[in-house]
Amino acid sequence: MPEMKIITAVIKPHRLDDVKEALQSFGVHGLTVTEASGYGRQRGHTEVYRGAEYTVDLVPKVRVEVLTEDDDADSVIDVIVKSARTGKIGDGKVWSVPVETAVRVRTGERGPDAL
Amino acid sequence: MPSGFSGGDTAFVLISAALVMLMTPGLAFFYGGMVRVKSALNMLAMSFIALGIVTVLWVLFGFSIAFGPDSFHGLIGDFSMLGMRHIGMNQLSGTIPVFAFAMFQLMFAVITPALISGAIADRAKFSAWAVFIAFWVTVVYFPVAHWVFYTDNGKGGWLVDHIGALDFAGGTAVHLNAGIAGLALALVLGKRVGFKKDPMRPHSLPLVMLGSGLLWFGWFGFNAGSALAANGLAGLAFTNTQVATAAAMIGWLIFERIKHGAFTTLGAASGAVAGLVGITPACAYISPLGAIALGLVCGALCAWAISLKYKLGFDDSLDVVGVHAVGGAVGALLIGLLATGGGGSTAKGLFYGGGFAQLGKQAIGVGSVGVYSFVLAWIIAKVIQKTMGFRVSEEVEIAGIDQAEHAESAYDFSAVGAALSKALSPSAPATPAKTSAAPAETKVDA
């Protein structure tokens, strides 16, 4: 049975600092951040260049990934949701997926020890 | 120095020549920022190559064709100055050395073909473009500069000395000329792949703003410098250049705000350039209040004119027609309305009691330059298309012309991208790049 989860959050780029801080004070040791683009219900926006209008469907987002032990997963999700929320449309999504295994590259430690 | 020489005038014209030179790199950035990432370098290169080709041709025969003593009914200069061999260091043209005059005029000849390049962004073979520049300046720009700029007590160019059409710094010879040639090229080459379908957003509006700023700065050399003397006329031309450009930026932005609901930076940059184009022929003949009117009209009219390509279905990619052909023609025609008679010419426009006489002369200038430029540019482009081919293949255009024509990428911001590229050998040919064939141990110390 997997004892770990990976939590993925797609959030508004300007919320990243708050999310990072909240996770740190919760005790999360590491995370991975990538620039992403996408859309949900808010869809995109319109841009005009010399009269030519373009709809830009994909909105810039940030994807945050955190590996946690099972027991912490729900709390981590709560921390992210609370710190990422602005209450406006386009705040993003958070989800979690079970993880088979994890290895720390430097030492070879496996499982929750590698976190 | 011989009598009649003016150190002040010479210093002013030499500095103006340097200012106008900077406009071509400025134009390169103005255009380069407007295309997509995959063709940014090609756009820059299309302008820069004009500095190379036209400069050499200017020395060999261009200056002589444009500014040699008239040899045939005001149509073309003679060949007495081929290779600039018989020009003495201290020989004067007016109050300045002939060499200073020749270099000032050269910078006009350089930027004119560079202006055309925006009409065929993303899709022209670089070799074909280089050949086009050489032929077009030879049979179009050099003679037209003679028609419009070469005065010789009534025995000079036919438009300026016979007809009396006014064009102070090149609204017809430079901008209308380039704009119409751009139209011809856009028609011969055809549309970009995905025109009107794929998004073609400018990849860097800050580059566009930088370019328009450099153009604005250099344009003081272009217009004020065309007085060829550090005098009151230069002051008037300088003033009107600033005023009309400011007004045109406002005119474009107002049009845009009403029509599309936003004040765009691209609109501000384009409006400024439209104003610079429009005031170019008129800067020495109208008043600062006239310049405000001209600027507002030019800005709003060009902002409207750039929509024509979508309605009429030609892909003038960066709006060379809408800005340079329309702006140049409007500026030249408005002289017929707004000329005060108190500037660089005693001719008065319609609004100053001069009747329709000057307007008619201006129309002849606009019509003749426009038709000549279109026909010749179309013929040259067709011949190139039939012989060496003018367009890159569709695959190259889709993948991006920078890689195929220049073997370079404009930007390398991605650490992953850098890590994926592998050095071959210092002298390896750029294409075809068969990375798999390279021995694994080949390394180059950068």
What features would you describe in this structure?
The complex is a heterodimer of chains A (115) and B (446). Chain A is α+β, with helices and mostly antiparallel strands and 115 residues long. Chain A has helices at 16-26, 70-84; strands at residues 4-11, 32-38, 45-49, 52-56, 59-69, 92-99. The two termini of chain A are 17 Å apart. Chain B starts with 6 loop residues before the first helix and ends in a 26-residue tail after the last helix. Chain B has helices at 7-32, 40-67, 98-116, 126-149, 158-163, 171-189, 205-224, 232-260, 265-282, 288-305, 308-312, 320-338, 357-387, 394-399, 401-406, 415-420; strands spanning 92-93, 96-97. The longest helix of chain B has 31 residues, at 357-387. By secondary structure, chain B is mainly alpha-helical. Chain B has a two-stranded antiparallel sheet. Chain B has one domain: Ammonium transporter fold. In chain B, a hairpin with a 2-residue loop joins strand 1 (92-93) and strand 2 (96-97). In chain B, helix 4 (126-149) runs antiparallel to helix 13, helix 8 packs parallel to helix 10 (288-305) and helix 12 (320-338) runs antiparallel to helix 13. Classes of the chains: A alpha+beta (115), B mainly alpha (446). The A-B interface holds A 47-54, 56 and B 199-202, 256, 259-262, 264, 266-267, 270, 303, 306-307, 310, 319. Chain B: Homotrimer. Chain B: GO terms for molecular function: ammonium channel activity. Chain B: Its main location: membrane. Chain B: The chain crosses the membrane at residues 12-31, 43-67, 96-116, 128-149, 169-190, 202-222, 234-255, 262-279, 285-306, 318-339, 359-381.
